[in-house]
Design brief:
By secondary structure, this protein is α/β, with parallel strands linked by helices. The chain is about 45% helix and about 15% strand. The chain has 17 helices and 15 strands. The chain has helices at about 5-15, 20-35, 60-75, 95-100, 105-120, 140-150, 160-170, 185-190, 200-215, 225-240, 245-255, 270-280, 285-300, 315-325, 360-365, 380-395, 395-400; strands at about 55, 60, 125-130, 155-160, 175, 190-195, 200, 225, 260, 285, 305-310, 335-340, 365-375, 405-410, 410-415. The strands form five sheets. A six-stranded parallel beta sheet has the order 9-4-3-11-12-13. A three-stranded antiparallel beta sheet has the order 5-7-6. Strands 1-2 form a two-stranded antiparallel ribbon. It is globular, with a radius of gyration of 30 Å. The model is unreliable at about 1-5 and about 35-55 (pLDDT under 50).
């Protein structure tokens, strides 16, 4: 079908664009589509102006102009095509993640989690690591201890059961792999506990309870202890007998504070209760001290990032510092970076969060234009890849990093941010 050049010239005059040649090509295509769909009749040689032709009560010019604008907007958005992950002989985990960054969905999010962690290190952000669930029983203890010792993180907020299982393993005990054929009746008869597809000895767990009680027996029970202070004491005592570092020992040696929002609801509380029942030792734990210390960290940090492993609930204690900022007349700023590695179901909108959107349920409070990654994956799958990649890529970012430093004197904690 022949389209008159004067007709296209008239259309061109209606549209302001710097690229005339490309626009003529696009408009020719659009007008051709309109003709093929019988939305307009063939242009008559005697027609003086193209405005004489109408499509659904709109002139041809208006219709073509609208379609051209939509196409121009789409061309600005559709600029980065996905790249299928290639198969090659590169044995570098960091190299594999770099290739996955060109993909989509979980592959891209996993690669972005690695990149965001590097960005946090490069930007001298105060990095919170929040963890819950079966991090230790799934075999992540050494990896987490490594990032603590090398100061890839600055503040720990850990679920009480994670810390209890850490104590269990650092005392020289093990968790064991289970088999589907093992019946619960046989396990119970043998005093063996099942944790998912992992087993543990009930007797060995009770030995961990006894050890917690032995530490409490050494404390001055005439005063109260903050939970962070108490966990620091556990880390100190554990480091004196440990053959291998865990979360608490690595944090003690590296002067990294450890907070626990649910200590009294975890298995550590069993050791505390046992000490009270058997030895009549009454220890007082003051959780408000931890809240004040978390507020201090938030106020003195220039910017922050948060990494959440497991359930989103593990970061609730960090979120409280934002809500409590009014006490000291501070201004809640939110995190500049956020990574969440979890199997919790999350709405799609949180992956490109709005300032006040439902992303706060997954990442906590963020600053505007925060950089985020949500990895819909079990941490026991994602964490080995990310931390192994960090061991290959993070050296240059760590050399010049100005990280916060902590000092502890009894119940007092001080933070210095260079």
């Amino acid at each position: 079908m022949f389209i008159k050049k004067p007709f296209l010239t008239s259309i061109m005059n209606m549209i302001n664009t710097p690229d005339k040649k490309n626009e003529v090509d696009e408009l020719t295509e659009i007008v051709g589509i309109l003709f093929n769909k019988n939305m307009i009749d063939e242009v008559d040689d005697d027609a003086s102006e193209p405005e004489d032709y109408y499509v659904l009560d709109q002139s041809i010019l208006e219709t073509v102009n609208s379609l051209a604008q939509k196409k121009a907007k789409a061309s600005k958005l559709l600029t980065v095509p996905t790249r299928p992950v290639p198969i090659d002989r590169d044995r570098s985990v960091a190299g594999l993640l770099a290739k996955m960054e060109g993909a989509g969905f979980g592959a891209k999010q996993l690669a972005e989690a690695h990149r965001i962690w590097l960005d946090m290190l490069d930007d001298n952000a105060t990095i919170y690591l929040c963890g819950s669930g079966n991090l230790v029983t799934s075999g992540m203890r050494r990896l987490i201890a490594w990032v603590i010792k090398n100061r890839f993180v600055d503040v720990l907020v850990m679920n009480g059961n994670v810390l209890y299982q850490d104590i269990h393993e650092v005392l020289g005990r093990n968790h064991y792999q289970a088999h589907p054929s093992m019946s619960d009746d046989d396990l119970d008869a043998s005093d063996v506990m099942r944790i998912g597809d992992v087993l543990s000895s009930r007797d060995e767990y009770q030995e961990a309870d006894e050890w917690v009680g032995s530490v409490i027996n050494q404390l001055d029970v005439s005063r109260s202890y903050g939970v962070r202070e108490f966990l620091g004491i556990l880390g100190r005592e554990l480091s004196e007998i440990a053959n291998e570092d865990g979360i608490l020992t690595a944090a003690f040696k590296s002067r990294v504070p450890v907070f626990c929002p649910d200590l009294t609801g975890s298995e550590i509380a069993i050791g505390i209760a046992r000490a009270k029942f058997e030895k009549k030792i009454q220890i007082s734990l003051d959780a408000t001290t931890d809240t004040m210390e978390m507020m201090q960290i938030a106020q003195k940090s220039r910017n922050s990032g948060i990494i959440t492993l497991g359930s989103c609930s593990s970061q609730a204690m960090v979120n409280i510092t934002e809500l409590s900022s009014y006490i000291t007349r501070g201004t809640p700023r939110g995190h500049k970076y956020a990574v969440n590695i979890s199997t919790d179901s999350s709405p799609l909108e949180i992956r490109t969060p709005s300032y006040l959107g439902s992303h706060t349920n997954v990442f906590g409070k963020l600053v505007k234009n925060a950089t985020t990654a949500y990895v819909p994956c079990d941490p026991s799958i994602a964490l080995p890849m990310i931390i192994t990649a960090l061991s290959q890529t993070a050296a240059k970012f760590m050399k010049g990093r100005k990280r916060p430093s902590f000092s502890f004197a009894g119940r007092e904690m001080n933070i210095d941010v260079p």
